[in-house]
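Name: CBF1-interacting co-repressor CIR N-terminal domain-containing protein
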Amino acid sequence: MGGGDLNLKKSWHPQTMKNIERVWKAEQKYEAERKKIEELQKELKEERAREEITRYAEETGAIK
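Structure predicted for CBF1-interacting co-repressor CIR N-terminal domain-containing protein:
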């Protein structure tokens, strides 16, 4: 007689496709943001290393 699991009809239930999709999208957004931050940190580290090398070269008189 029943119509299946009544919890699947609730908007807050974690097993509804809508909520599964919402969680998946949030995870994808988080992962993209994390990768972007990592890339920016890597670029900043490389830039600082280049500046340090340039500064050292200027101090030693290798470049003017």
